[in-house]
Design brief:
This protein is an alpha/beta fold. The protein folds into two domains: 191 residues, Class I glutamine amidotransferase (GATase) domain (Rossmann fold, 3-Layer(aba) Sandwich), CATH 3.40.50.880; 132 residues, Arc Repressor Mutant, subunit A (Orthogonal Bundle), CATH 1.10.10. It contains 15 helices and 13 strands. Helix 6 runs antiparallel to helix 7.
Length: 349
């Protein structure tokens, strides 16, 4: 969807909150769109967005932080038509699936909207409307199993930050709503305006939808039966990514035989040592690619890949995107120019 100058403005964004709602699920996306309005005004243009907060009933909406929000519209309000409808997450969103009347009202509003998406556990009531069908979806990582149990027909993407599945979109936990809103803004108003908003909010333009929801160490800790067993070794690995991190070397660091170490590591970390090391190296390379000005070869060297090609293959396995494309889509607001030797240097232009 692209908001053209010929299209009647503003584009109406309705965020639906279910009490108690997660505050950032509401305020994060709304700040993205409101900042676009600010920059439009500075350019002498009409506001591209009208922002509305709705709820099952109009009035004060409790949040998980204890600060109430004011919903100006109820779901049953006939004037609630939305160009973009976003369902915010929180405990209230997960509880909403048990209210058949509420879900019926929500379905009617969704069907009248031009674009529908969810933030965090807002995927629960969206799925309950049946509008996701048997497509793909994502939600907050801590509620994957709950979501899968309630909606087994939906293909749950446990890695993506946001998923575009037909007429409905879903995004991951809390701050991912900002990534998703920036992606919508870029689709509506173009990359330049989205980048301008991202700079003002001091965030990346957007993480790719397939970007991991959290870092490799955190992902391992979340799934490991006993993450503390090799905590010291994990820290040492992160500090020595360019070194030889073979099973033999790691086993020696913890005074174990290679065979016993490999077995114990899998038991306690739920991942093989080599795969864990590769995840950490990819994680470190992602940071260098987005925050620094090193060439791909230098990034590969610093992170222990040995070559840019080895790093490219690892990126394909873990984040499904090449390092060069990852940098182009996800780097910070610094600009880069190629040096004569083929490396990349920060441009001050």
């Amino acid at each position: 969807m692209c908001i053209s100058s010929a299209e009647q403005l503003p584009h109406r964004v309705v965020v639906v909150a279910f009490a108690p709602v997660q505050m950032l699920d509401v305020s994060g996306p709304l700040d993205v769109f409101s900042m676009a309005n600010v920059f439009a005004a500075e350019d002498g243009l009409p506001p591209p967005y009208e922002l509305v907060l709705a709820a099952p009933q109009a009035g004060l909406v409790a949040t998980t932080s204890g600060v109430a929000l004011q919903a100006t519209h109820a779901l049953s309000d006939p004037g609630l038509a939305a160009d973009t409808l976003l369902l915010a997450g929180g405990p209230g969103a997960r509880q909403a699936v048990r209210d058949a009347g509420l879900i019926a009202a929500l379905r009617a509003v969704c069907q009248g909207a031009g674009r529908v998406g969810s933030i965090c556990t807002g995927a629960f009531p969206l799925a309950a409307t049946g509008l996701l069908g048997k497509g793909r979806a994502t939600t907050h990582w801590d509620h994957f199993d709950e979501f899968a149990g309630l909606f087994p027909e939906i293909e749950l993407d446990r890695n993506a930050l946001f998923v575009d599945s037909g007429p409905c979109h879903t995004s991951a936990g809390i701050s991912a709503g900002i990534d998703y809103a920036l992606a919508l803004l870029e689709a509506d108003l173009g990359r330049a305006r989205a980048l301008q908003v991202a700079r003002a909010l001091v965030v990346f333009l957007k993480r790719p939808g397939g970007q991991a929801q959290f870092s490799a160490p955190l992902a391992a800790q979340a799934s490991a039966p006993d993450p503390d067993r090799f905590a010291g070794l994990s820290q040492w690995i992160m500090e020595h990514l360019a070194a030889d991190l073979s099973v033999e070397v790691l086993a020696e660091k913890v005074a174990m035989s290679p065979r016993n170490f490999a077995r114990r590591f899998v038991e306690n970390m739920n991942v093989a040592p080599a795969k864990y090391v590769e995840r950490l190296r990819v994680d470190a390379a992602r940071r260098l690619l987005t925050e620094g000005n090193l060439s791909l070869a230098r990034v590969a060297e610093r992170c222990g890949f040995g070559s840019a090609e080895t790093m490219r293959l690892a990126f394909r396995r873990h984040v499904d995107i090449a390092p060069h494309d990852f940098r182009a889509r996800f780097r910070s607001t610094r600009r880069y120019a190629p040096e004569q030797d083929g490396t990349e240097a920060e441009s001050t232009a």
